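User: Please fill in residues for this 283-position structure.
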């Protein structure tokens, strides 16, 4: 089913990415909005294959895994991270009828959504072998595994609407839906996701925003305006219309985040402080 391949990491891209990082300010302050935007620190940047139509990003056991979309071109790839100039990217091409979407690692396996096939794939991250599939209704956009002590494991899934879906980790069956709101207004176009404790961090399609969502209530509790990173990526070469911000991976080793975009030449490492979640009323 899968066709393996290998890509080289191009040294000039690495050098250019370092120049971009050096040119950017170390501290970027977001502009004011109805909800206070969070400051973030730009730590470093790395090369990213600009041919990848990034849909999902996941850091696992020293490797960065990435799903790349489009019919006839979808693939899932990995590389050592942080990369070296001589490193290569390995991966697997997916069947032409599959449009790869978000990915998440859970218990040593990669779970990947597809856009309209209503079928997810379970993949061995070491050899990219298909281990199984799971079904869901509607479109698949973003996916993250939520593992919180004292609570059953589950996946959080987005489908482009303003609702997040909760899937039981042991069965991938839908157990709950949660509308996402910002000051009482629905927030749709939720795309790539990353879960951390009770937070769900989300890209919003066709925006430069990174949304911090309270996974217990669905309320947006913070935003990051990453327009400066979009501008930095655009300086390398003009970005296509659909080369939007998309891709979030948490690095627990230093409490930082990797972010990139579709067809971008650069991956950025940033750090920010998550807002404190309000206490929930006792029932």
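Assistant: Residues filled in for all 283 positions:
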């Amino acid at each position: 089913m899968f066709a393996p391949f290998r890509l080289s990491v191009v040294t000039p891209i690495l050098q250019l990415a370092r120049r971009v990082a050096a040119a950017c300010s170390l501290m970027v302050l977001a502009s004011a909005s109805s909800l206070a935007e969070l400051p973030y620190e730009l730590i470093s940047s790395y090369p990213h294959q600009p041919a990848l139509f990034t849909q999902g990003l996941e850091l696992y056991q020293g490797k960065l895994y990435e799903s790349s979309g489009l019919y006839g071109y979808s693939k899932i790839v990995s590389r050592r991270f942080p990369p070296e100039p001589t490193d290569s990217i390995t991966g697997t091409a997916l069947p032409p009828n599959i449009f790869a979407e978000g990915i998440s690692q859970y218990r040593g396996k990669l779970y990947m959504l597809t856009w309209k096939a209503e079928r997810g794939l379970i993949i061995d991250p070491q050899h990219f072998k298909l281990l199984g599939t799971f079904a869901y209704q509607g479109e698949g956009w973003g996916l993250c595994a939520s593992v919180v002590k004292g609570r059953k494991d589950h996946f959080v899934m987005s489908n482009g609407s303003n609702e997040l879906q909760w899937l039981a980790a042991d069965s991938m069956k839908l157990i709950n839906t949660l509308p996402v709101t910002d000051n009482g207004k629905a927030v749709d176009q939720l795309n790539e996701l990353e879960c951390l404790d009770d937070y769900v961090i989300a890209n919003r399609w066709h925006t430069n925003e990174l949304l911090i969502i309270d996974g217990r209530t669905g309320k947006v509790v913070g935003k990051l305006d990453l327009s400066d990173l979009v501008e930095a990526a655009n300086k390398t070469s003009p970005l296509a219309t659909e080369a939007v911000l998309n891709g979030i991976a948490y690095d627990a080793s230093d409490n930082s985040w990797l972010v990139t975009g579709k067809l971008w030449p650069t991956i950025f490492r940033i750090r920010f402080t998550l807002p404190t979640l309000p206490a929930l009323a006792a029932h």
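For context: The chain is about 10% helix and 45% strand.
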